[in-house]
Design goal:
Largest sheet: 5 strands, antiparallel
Number of domains: 2
Number of strands: 22
Shape: globular
Structural class: alpha+beta
Oligomer: single chain
Distance between the termini: 31 Å
Number of helices: 8
Helix content: 10-25%
Length: about 400
């Protein structure tokens, strides 16, 4: 080595602080793990933006829900979905096992990390989960970010479920200033659309009339919202509204918007539940006095059919598609995203993974893997075969979520 060549570890502390001041979350941990000098020079990540991002409670001042006494407010929380894979040095070339693991990471204001289900806010199963992960021996790819509203009230020890899930969906708009966050936009449990920024006294309502929105997504130069029947509108940075598409013929009330980061295409995932189909049949046959359609699943809120649509921007309408090619869709509670198997290999393409809180462990089953997978509340729809059901029925697809891969445990 040239004696005049300086090592990174020998750089002045002041220069290191300047170089790495913007690193937060996983990047901050990875950089601090390089050597003792860097660890002492670079402070732990602090979620200063989110500690101070306070939003008013409740969203709707006319809400007639449970009364919450004392000073209350919402704190915006952020989580990030990562795709993990081993570094070349940690990859077992003799193994044919897949090389990726999908997780969601939420960082607290103190810098500690919580590992979550990549499709919801549920913590991953603790059994067999690695307690320590060596970030120097794995590669991390950021897939997307998810946001939620967390009620803060010192007088409440246990937050009611109603309040915990007050917002169906939250997104944060891009800010002109990279050091601050933009406005938050939320759909409340009644399907109404609101926006506010930190410091506002109240939320401002955007939706009008009888609109009932079910999903929300940042896309292109604005954000898009869709109703139960698929009618979709777009709002620009000034909150000016424009029609995107008309409704679709659908029995389902659950919709997910997802975009392709590679092509810019916008998709609509239509999930029809058993209770949706039964309700529609009853309305066509005389309501509750008409004949009762037999349940198609053990639970009324379980998915029985999934359809996928792609936006035709010229015609302003959704067009059904039967094939996702090499792509996979993840339709989650607080975020939805699409991954190409060309870009991230190792899992089955042409599938939709979705959340379904009503997939449970069968009584009498002593299969540990089945119990763990059902605890993830994940369903799978394979477009190629038409098969639809809980993740426990798709064991060949399950390793993307569980159990943690062998290379991850070896990196500890």
């Amino acid at each position: 080595m040239d004696e005049t060549e300086e090592r990174w570890a020998d750089l002045p502390k002041e220069l290191l602080e300047t170089l790495f001041t913007s690193f937060v979350g996983i990047d901050n941990l990875r950089v601090r793990a390089v050597c003792t000098s860097w660890r002492s020079s670079i402070p732990p990540s602090q979620k200063q933006n989110f500690q101070s991002y306070i939003l008013p409670f409740p969203v709707n001042l006319a809400d007639n829900g449970p009364t919450i006494t004392g000073a209350s407010y919402f704190e915006l929380t952020e989580s990030t979905v990562f795709c993990l894979e081993p570094s070349d040095e940690n990859l077992d070339s003799s193994s044919s096992a897949r090389n990726h693991w999908l997780v969601k990471v939420e960082e607290s204001s103190k810098g500690t990390l919580k590992i979550l289900n990549p499709l919801s806010e549920r913590r991953v199963h603790r059994k067999r989960s690695p307690k320590v992960i060596n970030l120097l021996e794995i590669r991390t790819t950021q897939v997307c970010k998810a946001y939620n509203l967390q009620l803060v009230n010192p007088s409440i020890r246990f937050c009611p479920y109603f309040i915990q899930n007050y917002a169906k969906k939250v997104v944060v708009l891009p800010s002109p200033c990279s050091s601050s966050l933009g406005e938050a936009v939320a759909i409340d449990i009644y399907g109404q659309l609101w926006h506010a920024k930190s410091g506002d006294k109240t939320w401002t309502q955007l939706s009008k009339g009888n609109s009932s929105f079910v999903d929300l997504l940042n896309h292109m130069d604005g954000f898009y919202v869709t109703e139960k029947k698929g009618k979709t509108v777009m709002y620009d940075s000034t909150f000016k509204e424009a029609m995107v598409s008309s409704s679709i013929e659908s029995d389902g009330c659950r919709k997910h918007l997802v975009n392709s980061s590679e092509t810019g295409e916008l998709f609509l995932i239509d999930i029809i539940l058993d209770i949706d189909r039964r309700r529609n049949i009853r309305s066509q046959t005389g309501g509750y006095n008409g004949p009762h359609e037999p349940a198609q699943s053990p639970y009324y809120h379980t998915a029985i059919e999934i359809k996928i649509y792609k936006l035709n921007e010229e015609k302003h309408e959704w067009e059904e598609v039967k094939n996702l090619d090499d792509r996979v869709v993840f339709a989650g509670e607080d975020c939805s995203y699409m991954i190409s198997n060309v870009k991230v290999s190792g899992f089955k393409d042409n599938c939709v993974y979705f959340t379904d809180r009503h997939y449970f462990k069968d009584v009498g089953s002593d299969d540990e893997l089945v119990e763990v997978l059902l605890g993830h509340n994940i369903g799978v729809f394979d477009l190629e075969s038409g098969k639809l059901g809980p993740l426990s029925l798709f064991r060949e697809y399950a390793p993307l979520f569980w159990p943690p891969p062998g290379w991850l445990r070896r990196s500890v």
